Amino acid sequence: MKDLFGKALLDYQNGNYTEDLITSTNISDEDELPLPYLFRGYKEMPKLEQKALQLAKGKVLDVGCGSGNHSLYLQSKGIDVKAIDISKGAIEVTKLRGVLNSELKNVLDETNTFDTILLLMNGTGVFQKLSEVSRYLKHLKSLLKPHGQILIDSSDIRYMYEDDDGGFWQDMNANYYGELDYFLSYKGEEEVPMKWLYLDFNTLLTACKAVGLQCELVIEGDHYDYLARLS
Asked: CA-CA distances (angstroms) from residue 148 to 51, 130, 213, 214?
């Protein structure tokens, strides 16, 4: 990884904001990801994220923390939060912004236990592929204190495969429709493509049952997205 995401965050943090990140997937065209959005405050967050932050309690792990928006909000409420990300630049930014406890780490390498684990901004994306969901869920379960919770959001992107008549045109021999190849570029440089997973709620529910986790739908968003609570 070139960590172009981290470079972009550092540029914005250091006052060198001149252009946005460009993202695309194997089923969608290029789109701009505005850097200011990655530094949003609580009032600018979607209602799913706001709801997750309201429900967070105890000792919190913020997985894929990015620039630290969620951690900073929780910190301001006196909550003990640890922020982790696999982007070196992102973790540098969290420290510059005042996150007290942040670490460059893959969630699979985390060993501490928590009352709340947050995976937001399509938190299922870190699972990468449907075949990996069980492994990640088992590990996340092992990080929960008694009566702990995992708050995770995603979207059912089935709508992206519908034709004008409402038909579903996905190749039935292909992988699960929420498995995408994700491409990112910044200032003319292209990042190494990565796998990214969008998980519909029923598939998440089934995966949770298989590893002994309860899964409840907390709230639905405006565009096929949802927040779930695992316990």
From this structure: 17, 24, 11, 11
pLDDT by residue for the chain (231 residues), tens digit each?
Answer: 899 999 999 999 999 999 999 999 999 999 999 999 999 999 999 999 999 999 999 999 999 999 999 999 999 999 999 999 999 999 999 999 999 999 999 999 999 999 999 999 999 999 999 999 999 999 999 999 999 999 999 999 998 887 777 666 666 667 899 999 999 999 999 999 999 999 999 999 999 999 999 999 999 999 999 999 999
For 6, list phi and psi in degrees, rounded to 5. -65, -40
What's the predicted TM-score (pTM) here? Answer: 0.96
